[in-house]
Amino acid sequence: MTTTTHYLDPALTPEGRGFATSPHGAFIGGTAEESGESTIDSIDPSTGRVITQIAESDHDTVDRAVRSSLEAFKGDWGNLTPGKRESALHRFADLIEQNTAELAAYDALEGGKPVSHVEAIDVPLAVEQFRYYAGWPTKLAGDVIPVDTPNSHVYNRKVPLGVVGAITPWNFPLCQAAIKIAPALAAGNTVVLKPSELTSLSSLRLAELAIEAGLPAGTVNVVTGTGAGAGNALVSHPDVAKISFTGSERVGRILGADAGRNLKHISLELGGKNPHIIFADADIERAATAAATTAFFYSGQVCFSGSRLMVERPALDQVLDIVSRYARTLVIGPGLDRSSTMGPLASQQHRDKVESYLNRIDGTEAKVAVGGSRIDREGYFLEPTVVVGPSDTDEVVTDEIFGPVLSVQVFDSVDEVLPRVNDSRYGLTAGVWTNDVRKAHNVAHQLQSGLVWVNTYADYHAAAPFGGFKGSGIGKDCGYEGLSKYLESQTIWMSLA
Ligand code: NAD
User: Fold this and answer.
1) Model pTM score
2) Domains of the chain by range and CATH?
3) Is the CB of 269 under 6 A from ligand 1?
4) Of 95, 219, 239, 415, which residue is the least packed, with the fewest Cβ within 10 Å?
5) Ligand 1 in contact with 251 (CB < 6 A)?
6) What is the spatial distance between Cα 406 and Cα 385, in angstroms, rounded to a whole number?
7) How many Cβ atoms sit within 10 Å of the Cβ of residue 2?
8) Which residues of 403-412 are buried (b: 16+ CB within 10 A; e: fewer)?
């Protein structure tokens, strides 16, 4: 492991730097508002320094944003023909792509994610969401339904819900915004987006790009601030028809209960503690490299991070050797430094939480093979850490730590490993590595995970449904399933007698 100590921002143009360091308020009806008096600091986790101030949008601001989006839903956006909606989404995608460097720099600056990763992964995935969903407005057909009543014509229509309140986490700010906005707009809804208070800049710029792309004012509004403030105001607003939430299981449960009380539509994309299972007959070099790469990607702050590595006994030494070597070769540095391959944790509070997990490993039978400590420098850096031999009930195995911490355990058979990994509160993703095709399918079918990757890990495409079982959420992103959660089905029953 090497660390870089300098702070670079070559990815930011003077205009971009100006945008990043100016105070920001909400973006409503095509207008970027002043930040006002009640603000929160946006902090660069690579240095701990304040970047700028972001408004804590109050109830009145959130109400104006929702009313503006409702107007766009009933008017300029809602009345667009499917073909015009398609063109608008393509223009939006093109503009995001053209502004890759700027958008990536904001997420790298506020989130600490290596800028080269944001450019190569996050922004293209955001563009892909808009291009994929741009194809849907012209294909959203209902059905003619056969019934037993004579002389009846029964059909259903797919209709939008209205204003969608989209709430996103800090780990993929731009990408998560796109994953919500693209299907919501394709279905004919409008959106009020509340990004995480840690990472607002790319969402605010995205709202500007929506206007530049010709989307009517109010189609995409952004309110900023905390969950307890702006988030709560959005969730409880009577004119918000649906909440689309991605974040922690804890907050997901609160919002799910609220939605139940108010009978609002809700979808929940939540956390995971994802098993990554390597059988001894697999291509061990490929499997172990993929396990290490995806466990430490974005410092492990990824919902589908394969942070629970299970290795069949004959392959254990080789896998441990590869993942440990990989952890030691990571270049730790600021998000905006192009040489960084791993950045800081996203906030001081989060770093302290992950560090407290590391400190408690000492009291268990597990051994820290690599890392295990805070890095002595400014910013919120922790060493990439490999923990060997924890028991199934140790918190390093059961909890979504959401940090650069990989637990490694051994197993001896399919019958042993399946119940062990399925005994989890979560069920988001899993990885299986084997060259035995029958074993691959059998294991995949028995895993309680919304997505199982076989002989690969962390592949993602806007067409392939993504979402969890159990405590990992309700509803899927991507594909038609992702679109359908922004649609209502209306049945028309007509007598022809
Ligand atoms: P979080 O739950 O703390 O916050 C997520 C968002 O909810 C933020 O915008 C926050 O301000 C808002 N919020 C918090 N309390 C709220 C409330 N009471 N009412 C309304 N809004 C509220 O999560 P986080 O720490 O930002 O993100 C990390 C979590 O997100 C992890 O658990 C990770 O696994 C999960 N995640 C899941 C997916 C997925 O697709 N399943 C993708 C990315 C992240």
Assistant:
1) 0.96
2) 3-270+474-490 (3.40.605.10), 275-461 (3.40.309.10)
3) yes
4) 415
5) yes
6) 6
7) 11
8) bbbbbbbbbe
